[in-house]
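Sample entry follows:

_____
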Amino acid sequence: MARAHIHVDFEVMLYILAGRVRHEYGPALERALDNEAGDFIFIEPGVPHEVFNLSETEPVVAVVARSDASEWEHIVPFERPPKRA
């Protein structure tokens, strides 16, 4: 799991080798997409997102490429909005 966050001015590309993940994304993390082995994921700069491993026992293995070598300095936490009733 990667808590909700935003990448400031850099892109992230992932290729899932094994496992399954769910990405929740959008201004209120209102959209969701499940990915599995063989899927390519592109995350644009500035998009709030959170990632969850869909298995409690199987790891997710992915190849990750970022367009910023100092990316950890350009990731900011994102507060998940409260769910509407």
